[in-house]
Amino acid sequence: MSRILIAEDDKALSGVLKKKLELNGHEVAVAANGEEALDMLGKSKPDILLLDIVMPKVNGYEVLEHMHSDPALSSVPVIIISNSGQPVELDRAQSLGAVDYLVKADFEPSEVLEKINKYLTSSSVPGGAGTAPAAVPVPENNPEQNRSHSVLVVEDDKFLRDLLVLKLKREGFKVSEAVDGEEGLKKTRNEKPNIIVLDLIIPVKDGFAFLEEMKKDPETESIPVIVLSNLGQREDIERAKALGARDYMVKAQLTPLEVVERIKTILRESYI
Questions:
Q1: Domains located in the chain, CATH noted
Q2: Which parts of the sequence belong to the Response regulatory domain (predicted)?
């Protein structure tokens, strides 16, 4: 049985999450503020922590700072649950060791459960305790090599787009953004990115039309494309790959970190 600590001052939200997690076999404790969370962390290290940012007495960043500086706690995976998803906040939370981030207004309890199971399963020790999360194998990073590569993210979901762009820039990549297929094609032709991350359900021109058009152009046909979509039906995957997509990733089944690592892998295979 995995032990989960929820640090959240919203009693309704913590109650819903606690019930959902307990029904799925997890042992759950709740801290109503950051001070209480630190006290509970000191007494019993959980397998995973769900952490709000804005809390009484001690806020989420201060909890992260304490954990980050404590060797006994720094390996505990932390998933942030916050009312805000601003890139500067994501950056700060991730720099302090948070492994994932959920915006309260945008998630269902089932999504929290999926993420928890992912990080617990990824641990090399049954139960998840005492080891750093390893959702994907992390290839050796070469910042100088990353800086020589450009990535175009074609995605109309602002939160996901901002999160991917932030992670890619932190890895040293040159990043460009487009919010619809027409803008994406224009930037593809003008900028010739080294790789494209493409949503399928986007305005003006959808991802299938985007793929069909760019693969017909001799100047852009060789650019690798990773499809990142909520569509997970076999026919959608086969259609995208038939149109030239190099890889296909379903949003609900991955974290942004996995997308970034897949980008690195494909770039190494394609350009090195």
A1: 3-122 (3.40.50.2300), 143-271 (3.40.50.2300)
A2: 3-120, 150-266
